[in-house]
Input
Amino acid sequence: MERIEPKRSLKLAPYPEALEKLFKVFQSRSFEYESISVEESIGRVLTEDIIANVDAPERDIAMVDGYTVKFKDVSGASAEKPVLLKIIGKFYPWDNPVGVKLLEGEAAYVTCGAPLPEGADAVIMVENAVFRDGKIEVRRPVKEGENVIHAGEDIRRGDIILRAGSILRPQDVGVLAGLGIRKVNVARKPRVAIIATGNELIELSKREPARIADNYALIVSGLISRIGGEPLRLSIAPDDLDEIKRRIKEALESADIIVTVGGCSMGEKDFVPDAVNSLGQPGVIIHGIRVKPGKVTGFGMVRGKPIVMLPGLLASTMAGFYLIFVPLISLYMGLKVEQLLPTITVRMGHDLDLDEKPLYRFLPVRIKGQEGKLYAEAVPGGPNSLSRFVKANGFILIPPKKRLRREEEVSVTLYSKDEFSRFFD
Amino acid sequence: MERIEPKRSLKLAPYPEALEKLFKVFQSRSFEYESISVEESIGRVLTEDIIANVDAPERDIAMVDGYTVKFKDVSGASAEKPVLLKIIGKFYPWDNPVGVKLLEGEAAYVTCGAPLPEGADAVIMVENAVFRDGKIEVRRPVKEGENVIHAGEDIRRGDIILRAGSILRPQDVGVLAGLGIRKVNVARKPRVAIIATGNELIELSKREPARIADNYALIVSGLISRIGGEPLRLSIAPDDLDEIKRRIKEALESADIIVTVGGCSMGEKDFVPDAVNSLGQPGVIIHGIRVKPGKVTGFGMVRGKPIVMLPGLLASTMAGFYLIFVPLISLYMGLKVEQLLPTITVRMGHDLDLDEKPLYRFLPVRIKGQEGKLYAEAVPGGPNSLSRFVKANGFILIPPKKRLRREEEVSVTLYSKDEFSRFFD
Output
């Protein structure tokens, strides 16, 4: 039997240093964008400021159903001295009263949202006037501009409506469409190739004794799609250097970012870092980070494309995904991590002891409501526990040598926006 | 000129009464479900409890790289009295050591995740033993089960993994796939037809002076897709009773739920309630709710399908959408509103005065971070302000005769899960 020893030893980088190296790689990146139809832009990231090219509303409109008047005509109106005004027309929101002018002593019926004719400067609510024989009787004054929405009151031509770097929501898209904007420039969705490695893995559609379903790649792929990337799940690579090189090469053709799962630890079968290094400069940039779990996570660059090496045990895979991949893809899209993943402040549900090692800890937690407040509770589990991540909603990143106390406020990053639906289980 | 007066008057129902009527309609509903591939089930609602049909892990596995032993063999091991064990083999996670039995005095090399041979009951970490000439020298004892993950320790056959009514997240889907589950029963996505009504409206692709882009339907459609419905935007219906009836009839063929926008106020051109009543029993169930804005919102049932009538001014459309449509679609899918929309507790950023009328108020608010805490600030705006909903992140539902005080804790329902990306603008 051959000698049993680690294939490599890792010099662990402090986590902040690993992040700094990530920032350096992306600091001078220019974003690739594409022009798409506004109607299809929900969830996409704007790469331009959107400036209003029209006023909204485009002209003065009635805020209520009623009668539009010149406010001066009724300034002396009272129950004792009612003012009579002649109704000259009826205007609906779809009317275009160009050329119609309200003269002294005249009024017009308007419905909510109708444009006002020239010369009109106030609207009397329908219940505050009496209509009879083509005239209205007004018994109290109105203020100038009362019940009128003025042109440009909501949005003024030239206003910045939405800024570059915003993720578009349904109402944003509706507002853009309402202003007559048909196309917007958005960041291209990064295509992320996922390569799972390991002789023990088997495609999900198959099943064999002693082989493990390739479900981590499925989790990674689902999480990527939930934060705005376009995942491409490639077939499983066996523990073979040439085969892993071939897969990464293939992925470099079709993807913007590559994620490997497994094969980056210190064992004799861990070929991923070698493959990355053999494919071009600079190759591996960081391999080994002072975090727990997830310490064998790494990343590199080959042919200008980032490669993230995630460890192959679920707790470590998740740690590497959230601590390295998510910051990387947010930089790639010009976003902050907080824009991709909700971060909430809750109270710690229990004490958590110090870990003496100088490591950041990735602690899976579950959010629980208790007497109207939200608490975080650690969810324990082995390195490849599946149930742990079904029970947990997010994680706390605990800095080195920090202990947590019950009732202390902690910041929890949720695994995705989908976690809210589970707070009340 | 004809007489100008409201076409109908509305008897406003208290909001809790309207909700109660909604619950009654749905209380005996059975859910339509479909069986879909696990890989495509992210975001869908489970309609069955998922029970594990295997243990996970399926057998005892090593938690670390090392040597698996019988713990009794090394119970007396120390630096002075090291124990020598013979290495009988090497096991990887993909191995299947059926029939291999560890005898007294034997050990085997195992990598993390590898199944243990029969008779092995502990694992010594690789760094805690010295390998030489086919043997290891062990200098300290291990506990029974140390560094072993036992069969069923993570998930036991028969455990309920996920309950009916859960919205599936990426990690859930990965876990189901890992357990060999290929198909799940999920609620069919409700198809929601959206009919905008109004002569003033024009399709988004066109543009005419004095006509208004049909952007509210686009907003409603986007919000529906974000909460798990399948929106179908139908073409605009003019203010014509027969035409509106025809559209609703058409929608009844293809959709599960119908939403109309506009045409349900008290004016002469408001034909939607008449159309709903003319199409079958019971027709309109509630029309007019003591909420502000949104009071002309209504709902009914025709041919067993719910119809929600939303008002046609944006603030009212949004109020009707969140106060009636969202509770309705959550009942339809067997969910709680909190599963569809995040609700967060923040502090009020300012005082808010009493409204003397006995109305629930739908108050659009913006979430702002300040000294590490989140605050809600009212976002003012006219009844059809577009910018208001670009600035706001959610709403507070204020019960009648309630005033809010600065620093008071309030519950904010976000417009969708997408709002998180905007908290840091």
Observations:
- Chain A touches chain B through 108 residues (CB under 8 Å).
- Chain A has a mean pLDDT of 93.
